[in-house]
Structures are given as C-alpha cells and as structure tokens.
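Backbones bend. Shown next:

***
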Amino acid sequence: MEDLSYQGVRCDVAAFSVDCPNRELFDQIADKWSMMILTVLDTGPTRFNEIKRQLEGISQKSLTQTLRKLERNGLVIREVIDTSPVAVQYQLSDLGGTLLPPFRALYGWTKHHLGDVLSARATYDARVA
C-alpha cells in the first residue's frame, strides 16, 4: 500500500474538529476553486482575466472572492499594474509555492486513477439504478 503521508506527516482526524484552525485553512485551500487558481499561477504572474479564461465556469464574483481569500492567507500576491486601463495581476507567494508539490501529487493521482474511479462510478450507478 502507498504511503499516504506528506513529508512524513499523516492526517490527524482531531484536526477536523469544528473549532480547529487547521480545518478552516484546509477548507480554504481545498475548496472548489483555490487549488485550480494556485495551479494556474504556477506558470507565473497572471492577470485576472487570464485566470478567468483558464478556469472555465468560474464566475467573476467567485474568482474575486477566492483570490482575496488566497491573498489574505498569504498564498498569492496581488499587484496593480499602472496602465490604462489599470490592470491587476496575481502571482504565487513563496508560501503559496510550497503547496505546488502536494497539488502536483494530487493531480498525478487523479490522472493515474481516473479509470479506476470511472469504473467504480459505473459499478455504483448500475447497482443503484
């Protein structure tokens, strides 16, 4: 069986209690859009509209809220570019960059196990139909 730890640290179920700060941060990093936004920023500084173009289906409101949350958590850096019209670009902070290795591992897992998951879904759907 594969070692599911990251840098030797295994998940602590107690960290998921409702008042645990780890849970709040985990929720914010692993939400619907944060991982994808941080992965887009892996390519370097990116303007708001380019992030939006690369994340099909994200609304302007969701992108704005998620970027603000990521900036507040110190994971991205927001820079206003003095052009006409004014532009805004985002880039990973050093702290945000530390999330890329586990994100890449998760992405690799999804590519490696997609067939298994699709098979499990088909089996489940046939069973409950």
About this structure: The longest helix spans residues 100-128. The longest strand covers residues 76-81. The two ends are 32 Å apart (CA to CA). Helices lie at 21-29, 34-40, 48-54, 60-72, 94-97, 100-128.
